[in-house]
């Protein structure tokens, strides 16, 4: 199957409640997520990411549109489409009286996984909760609860794993454990969809990225193409003190940074660094040190989601 998930014309309007007016959270989303990819769903707070993920998970009812998961139309084959996907939600919602082991067993029961096909102990080991297997969930730390949520998402061995802000507010050790596991699951063939606030993380982890804003997909590209969108590089020069600048080649812009260094931005598609450096050298501008900076996903994101 080439697409693990296919979404067409997906809309969601939350009904008005009390003083809160109705909210159109998704406005006709079209998106295909390739099988085997690590797919990043990015967007500012309130963009509609969790709404979309919760619709995929069958937790929120859509207002309009079509969702096909692993070839199964969500409305025609709800059971099969649910079985294909495992979701680690953004919210920590769990029964405080269940132990991690019991939580996993209950979840497996909900998904109709026969006892002989359960992999509770392996899952507990995978997320590093073997020692806490029989502790009450309410005694677990926030990080342990998140790890339990990951294990719960995996009980039925889904083809697709969805992680909603899995690393928001978690410490670096947990983050690394999480990404190691996600990479390994992906290498074993699982399609991964994740939302994250950490753009650097998305840049490193995701093969493809969709950015959504105000309930619409504003761009969807493979990560490398997305990164090359901003045609911008910056030369940062230490000139050893104030200098008088010569006219720079067309397209180059200069500014003095607060630390006194001279920053010259230029479009690498049209200008080369040595053309700029030559002009400076000919004009007798001393160059004590040079560094270059490249636009990253953060720049692309800011540019695209600026209102
Ligand atoms: P994101 O995950 O990208 O931050 P959400 O999907 O959580 O965005 O929210 C999208 C919009 O829908 C926001 O304006 C949010 O306030 C609204 N929203 C989310 N859940 C509900 C709900 N249960 N009822 C009403 N409005 C909601
Ligand atoms: Mg969210």
From TrEMBL:
GO molecular function terms attached to this record: ATP binding
Keyword ATP-binding appears in the UniProt entry: yes
InterPro entries, sorted: AAA+_ATPase (IPR003593), ABC_transporter-like_ATP-bd (IPR003439), ABC_transporter-like_CS (IPR017871), ABC_transporter_ATP-binding (IPR050763), P-loop_NTPase (IPR027417)
Keywords, comma-separated and alphabetical: ATP-binding, Nucleotide-binding, Transport
Domain named ABC transporter: residues: 5-239
Name of this protein: ABC transporter ATP-binding protein
């Amino acid at each position: 199957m080439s697409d693990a998930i296919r979404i067409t014309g997906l809309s969601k309007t939350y009904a008005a409640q009390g003083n809160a007016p109705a909210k159109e959270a998704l406005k006709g989303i079209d998106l295909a997520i390739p099988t085997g990819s690590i797919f990043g769903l990015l967007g500012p707070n309130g963009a509609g990411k969790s709404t979309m993920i919760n619709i995929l998970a069958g937790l929120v009812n859509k207002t309009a549109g079509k969702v096909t998961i692993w070839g199964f139309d969500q409305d025609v084959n709800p059971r099969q489409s649910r079985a294909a996907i495992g979701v680690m939600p953004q919210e920590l919602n769990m029964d405080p009286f269940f132990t991690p082991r019991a939580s996993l067993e209950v979840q497996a029961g909900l998904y109709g996984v026969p006892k002989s096909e359960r992999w509770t102990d392996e899952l507990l080991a995978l997320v590093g909760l073997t020692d806490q297997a029989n502790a009450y969930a309410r005694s677990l730390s926030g990080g342990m609860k998140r790890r339990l949520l990951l294990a719960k998402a995996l009980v039925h061995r889904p083809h697709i794993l969805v992680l909603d802000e899995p690393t928001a507010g978690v410490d670096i050790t947990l983050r690394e454990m999480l990404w190691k596991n996600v990479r390994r699951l992906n290498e074993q063939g699982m399609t991964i969809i994740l939302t994250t606030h950490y753009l650097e993380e998305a840049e490193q982890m995701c093969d493809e990225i969709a950015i959504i804003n105000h309930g619409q997909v504003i761009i969807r590209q493979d990560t490398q193409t997305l990164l090359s969108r901003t045609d911008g590089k910056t030369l940062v020069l230490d000139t050893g003190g104030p200098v008088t600048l010569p006219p720079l080649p067309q397209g180059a812009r200069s500014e003095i940074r607060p630390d006194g260094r001279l920053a010259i931005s230029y479009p690498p598609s049209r200008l080369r660094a040595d053309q700029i450096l030559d002009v400076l050298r000919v004009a007798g501008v001393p160059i004590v040190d040079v560094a270059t900076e490249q636009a990253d996903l953060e720049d692309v994101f800011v540019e695209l989601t600026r209102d």
